[in-house]
Structure formats: C-alpha cells, structure tokens
Amino acid sequence: MSRETSLAKNTFIMAIGTILPKLALFITLPVITGQLTKAEYGTYDLITTLVSLFLPVATLQVQTAAFRFLIDCKEDERGKKKVITNVVVFVLISSLIALSILFLALFKLSLLVRTLICIYFFADIILMTLLQVVRGLSMPKLYATCTSVQPIANMVLVVILVLFAQGGLVGALISMTAATFLAMVIVILRAHIFSYLDLKLLSKDKMKEMVGYAWPMIPNSLSLWLLNFSDRLVLRQFMGIEAVAVYAAANKVPSMYSLANSAFTLAWQENAAINAKDEDVSAYYGSMFDNILRILSGIMALLIAATPVLFRILIRGDYSDAYRQMPILLMAMFFSSMSSFLGGIYIAHKKTKNVGGTTIIAAVVNVVIDLVCVRFLGIYAASLSTLCAYMFLALYRMWNVQKFQPIRYRYGKMIQYLSVLVILCVMAWINTWYLQCLNAGIAVVFAVWINRKLVKNTLAMLLKKVRKGKKHE
C-alpha cells in the first residue's frame, strides 16, 4: 500500500471516530439540558470543559509520547513493552496525585458528586492514554471504534438514567463514567494491553526522555484552548452575551470544517512519523504540502461560495450579523489546517518545543488583537484576530520547519490560490444575488481545475468499479 493510500484510508477511519461522537452529542445534549436544573447543568458543563484542561496538567501530556515513541518501535517488541509500561505507570501515579488534589479542591460539592467526578476523570485519563498507545501501535480501526463507543454508550445511558430514571446530575456522571470504562475495557482487551506491561522494564531514563518530549505539549494544549475561546471571553466582557451568541453562530460552519480536518490531522501525524526517516522524506513532505494546499483551497472555495446557502439552512433567528464573519472564519480555518499539517512534521521529528512555542505566540497574537481592536471593530475583532493568529501560525511554521526539515514550497501557486480565495471572500461578504451566482461558478471551476488530476483519477476509479460490477451481473 502506498503512503498516500495509507493516509487516505486512515483519514477515513479517523473521520468515523471523529464525527460519530458529535452526532451522539446532538442527541445527548437536549436530554441533559432538558432534565438537569440550571445549577446541575452548570456543574456538568464545567466538568466537561475542565477535563480538557485538567488532562494535560495531570499527566504532563506523557500519553502523547506513547504515540510518537511507539512509532519508532515498529519491529521491536521489547521496545514497545518498555514504552507502554513506563507511560502507563507514570500516568497512573501522576493522575492519582492530581485527582487527590482535585477531590479536596471540590469541597463545595457533595461527597458523592466529587467522588464520581474524580472516578470519571481517572477513567478518561487512562482511556486517553490507551488510545494514544493504540495509535502508536497502528490500530486506527480500534481507535475509531473506542472513540465512537464511548459517546454512543453515554448517549444510551443518559436516556436511561437521566431521562427515564430522573437521575439528574448523578445520573449524568454515572453515564459518562460507565461509558468511559466500557471503552477502556474494549481497548485493554482488543489491544492486549496487559501483554505489554512488564515492571522489570521501568526506567527512570525512559520516563525522563518521554517527559522531556511531552511537557511542551501542555502549553500547546492550553494555548489552543485560549486561541479557540479567548474571543468569546473578550466579546463577553466588552460587548455582552449577545455578541458571543452572534460569534458562536458564525462559527457553526467553520467548526464543522475544523472537525472534519481533525480526522486528517490524526492520520497525518502517524503517516509523517512513520516516514520521517525515509530517504526521500523532503520530496514526500513537499509533495504532500502541495497536494493538501490544492485540496484545501478547493474545499475552501466551495465552502465560501456556499456560505449564503449554508447560513440559511443552519442558522435560525436574528443572526444576520453573523453572516459576514463566516468568510473570515473560514479563511482562519484554512490557515489552521495548514499549520496542523506542519505540526505533524514537528511531531514526526519530536520537535514538541517548537509546537508549543509557536502555538503560544499565536494565542498571544489573538488576544492582543482582540483587546486592541474590539472597541473599534466590534465582533470583527474576534474573527479577524482568529484569522491573523492562524495565518501567523501557518507562515511561521513554514519558515521554522525548514531549520530541521527542508521542504520546497511553490510560492507562486500559494499566492494564486490565496488570491482567488480572497476574491471569493470579498464577493461572499458583499452578498448580492448576482455575486453569489458568480462566486459559485468561479469556486466550482477553480476547485475542479486545481484538483483536475485527483478528479480525473477518482472518476476513472469509479468508472472502473461500475464496469466491473456490470460484468458480474
């Protein structure tokens, strides 16, 4: 199987594990909001938000080292056991210490609720660690299965315990915890995790090496959180909650695109790491950059042109101000995707300090522009600051990655593609019916033309399958 085919296959598998949880959330959320009191839902929302911040700090992000270090042990069974044993032991010890502190910090909650919260956090930490192990062992189907099982099981249990049994917050916590344990058991059994554990292989030096790799991912995770949510905090402070609602509505389509792109990012990180030591790695990374640039430019052109239609379908109520933010935020997601692609190369070469450092700077850029411009530009300050931050992140990483991994960029093509996307954004922003029609025509021609080889090969493959199917009839 070629590198490109493997990447495409893994992206499809990861997409299943990325999208299914969100679909389950659409069913779970109305039940939760409808059955919990405002105080209970506030606690529930705080828990689900806090877990994404707590996980990196509690584990020093060592679970991310499991994925990258296992990639280097493809043919070394003893090496796999050493990595998994040290990661699991470190995470168990660090999480128990962190959870003991958390238990005491939640003293205002009832004993039952804070006990359930800590048990859920513990299960989630172990599951996230094991999922990184599964990725490192190149088991994408198991990864997708478990990331799908957890939210689906949670959805079923929420209906039973919260809707029918009227369990309230306790029922919601039990649902999350039980679903997480179920996914964890599946990983342990299907990946034969216990067969990789050998306490004789515990090594202070190996732990130190993995912590050295992983800790820069803590500020990276926190900065990404700040980059994604600081806009809302600034708008809430200076413009009120209604401005936050408008900005949230404007983010609907860009966030859906970002969700789809996250599946590719997961697959690309593995692909980039596996091929990092190939002799033709520079040419391969350069070729992949060109391919991704073309595909993303085509997708983005179609999304920008479809903005008027998507807005009418997805947005209800008085959110007309949100429309003109969408083209700006879509361009922000374009640069976010390119920066994620380059981030995969950092991971492949274990340059996590570069990942964390560049994300921190981008987060600072975002916050500074927000604070300086919000009084003059209003909601535009939030969308433009996000665009500037991700643009900076992508351009800086393009330059910085050359220090350890030479890549040939086709700057002429990049400028051409970006020029077309900017023109499409301007026409979408003006939003007259004739410009919408013109936008749609340009976008389709542009997307098909720059990806003509891909379109031709895809059509040829489909035609071949149709002919083969007719022969068997």
Count of helical stretches: 20
What is the radius of gyration? 23 Å
How many beta strands in the DSSP annotation? 0
Tell me about the biggest sheet?
none
CA distance, first residue to last residue: 29 Å
Describe the 3D structure.
The protein is mainly alpha-helical and 473 residues long. It folds into 2 domains: 3-211, no CATH class; 216-466, no CATH class. 85% of the residues lie in helices and 0% in strands. The protein has 20 helices and no strands. α9 runs antiparallel to α17 (379-400). The chain is globular, with a radius of gyration of 23 Å.
Could you name the key traits of this structure?
20 helices, mainly alpha, 2 domains, 473 residues
Task: Sum this structure up briefly.
By secondary structure, the protein is mostly helical.
List the helices and strands and how they pair.
Blueprint: H1 3-35, H2 38-59, H3 62-71, H4 77-105, H5 111-136, H6 140-164, H7 168-190, H8 204-214, H9 217-238, H10 241-250, H11 252-274, H12 281-305, H13 307-314, H14 320-323, H15 326-348, H16 352-377, H17 379-400, H18 411-430, H19 433-450, H20 452-472
Helix pairs in contact: 1-6, 1-11, 2-5, 2-7, 3-4, 3-5, 3-8, 4-5, 5-6, 5-7, 6-7, 9-10, 9-16, 9-17, 11-15, 12-15, 12-18, 12-19, 15-17, 16-17, 18-19
